[in-house]
Amino acid sequence: MKNIKDYSIESLKEELSKINEKPYRAEQIYKWIYEEKVSNFDDMTNLSLDLRKKLNETFIIKEFKIQKKQVASDGTIKYLFDVLDGNAIETVLMKYHYGYSICVSSQIGCKMGCKFCASTGIPFVRNLSSGEIVEQIMAVERDENIRISNVVFMGIGEPLDNYENVVNAIKIINNPKALNIGARHISISTSGIVPKIYKLAEENIQCTLSISLHATTNEQRSKMMPVNNTYNIEELLKAAKDYIAKTNRRISFEYALAKENNDNLEDAKRLVKLLKGMLCHVNLIPINKIENGKYQKSSNENIIKFRDYLNDSGIVATIRRELGSDIDAACGQLRRKNL
Ligand code: SAH
Which residue ranges form the domains of the chain, and what is each CATH number? Predict the structure, then answer.
């Protein structure tokens, strides 16, 4: 059975033509799913019984079950969703002054092997489908009875390693007839899969690209992130520049500060050299300690010094607020839990 939430409106029209149905039916079905939020084709009362029967025979409307829900002291909520095939994924809801932001997973497990991340070391199982990405947002909105305004692809998985499903999910998230979240309120974070950055630049979607840089020399970065052995810092920054030139969008570089690893003034100086003149922003993340991880959080003093040095040198840098760390919901703490 096909998950109906996997389909962009254009592809749903094609799918319906295969069962001899008119394209406008897709609009009606979209309305039932994304506006009325029905979970059953039989509730789509303006469709003929015959069409409802065909839909029941062809599609399912996949809704996750909440396996576990934890609320942090700052209000951040971490969900463990049962994705109905024996696997589970984590999704995090954060409340900011401007609204709700959701951190979605893009894969069950991750292949990237970043040494400081809890999603590492758990075997990769499979990509999430577009509908499973979309459903993370819908399931949280249903559960909390809220409307989410921002989506970040910073949960488990490497979004650019699941390129087609992620780009298609963005089309659904973005569509005014579906979740209607503006592309500028959607961020994709990548560990740096260079060919996919070039490809994304051609898509003509206005989402924000975040690049996990985390280090300023190849030696240092390769130790933290094995992907650097395939695509090094120079290649990565070249792709980033191409992305900026083609999209006119500012890139956000993530830099997780770990004590005595990448947090001293020499690092800050090299970072300025690397990024000088680029349309970018640096997001400093105090590294979150993970089980058995060797990286320790930098001192607050060092983090502030690092930020101030960047800002004084003309590189806009901010420190990411830590949310949800008491329930292991902060950056890099998500993992695929077994049921
Ligand atoms: N695979 C993607 C998205 C998932 S991780 C990527 O690598 O960008 C989202 C962000 O959290 C990335 O910048 C990642 O490097 C960062 N991160 C991972 N582990 C972390 C940790 N322990 N502390 C702080 N940030 C971490």
Answer: 2-60 (1.10.150.530), 65-327 (3.20.20.70)
